Description:
2 copies of one chain form a homodimer.
Chain A: H1 2-17, H2 20-25, E1 37-38, E2 47-50, E3 68-73, H3 75-84, E4 92-100, E5 110-112, E6 115-117, E7 120-131, E8 142-146, E9 157-158, H4 163-174
Antiparallel strand pairs in A: 1-9, 2-3, 3-4, 4-7, 5-6, 7-8
Amino acid sequence: xxxxxxxxxxxxxxxxxxxxxxxxxxxxxxxxxxxxxxxxxxxxxxxxxxxxxxxxxxxxxxxxxxxxxxxxxxxxxxxxxxxxxxxxxxxxxxxxxxxxxxxxxxxxxxxxxxxxxxxxxxxxxxxxxxxxxxxxxxxxxxxxxxxxxxxxxxxxxxxxxxxxxxxxxxxxxxxxxxxxxxxxxxxxxxx
Amino acid sequence: xxxxxxxxxxxxxxxxxxxxxxxxxxxxxxxxxxxxxxxxxxxxxxxxxxxxxxxxxxxxxxxxxxxxxxxxxxxxxxxxxxxxxxxxxxxxxxxxxxxxxxxxxxxxxxxxxxxxxxxxxxxxxxxxxxxxxxxxxxxxxxxxxxxxxxxxxxxxxxxxxxxxxxxxxxxxxxxxxxxxxxxxxxxxxxx
Lengths: 191, 191
């Protein structure tokens, strides 16, 4: 009888700390023993914050990020940013790229019933940033990683990108907004 | 003692059937007594499926949908579509528009450190579709609504749009994919 009650008590505690839906949302950064970041999982169900688009057709055929950038942040980290103006330790921000869909104009656009414009084509790569002040003290507390700018499958792990490749541009332009381009993300902008 | 156990049992049941995160995700369509749809809530935390972009600058200054279209579907309805190829009764699909951010080129684009392209400006309206075969039998089971194409605040309620305004184009172009432009949404495309 006493044992039975203890088990019921444990069940209550488990539901309270790990509700089912929250488990699927949560995904702390996972590092390999040699410091590589494992490919984030589940990010397509995080909160979408914005879709910058830099078409190859407007960038001499070689956009630095080809071409749509879909940016995702977990809900609890969005909430924290909206409350405090900075992201919690452990925050992961994922930018998944897609190509534009079958361009028919030189700029990358095409005509569809909704008008002339750009539409999402195939997936084309992932970049991720991780906030971990102890691990990345030299780049304002954030580490930068790329799993390739190419169609699926993406790399399984990624070593930290050099300052020249990623962090330098964030430090130069968005150090005041926790290293993140919130000016392009309507739900975060202006916080 | 017996009462105490009953209360514990009830707590377990509540957590099991209504986990906290799922409650915030769920949002059935709500209609007023005269058949208007209430403005959907919480959609910015649904699953983002794609961002078509029809800039005013590429559409004689008057895009039908100005300008980014951010499209959101609830997770359970995405799952159902991926499994069955059609959306469940009650599915709501929201398309939230944003303008492009401060254009400096005639096409609506601007230069940023990531390249020349388009970036999300201010929110600019909401359209929604609701699958309800009994309520909308004449338009393949879907109702179409717009809460305005303008900056916040959006309309609180919307009457069903006419066939000419919305459903007609969906019937003509995407009747075979449950009235939805899945060809522009990478995670749904090809199902």
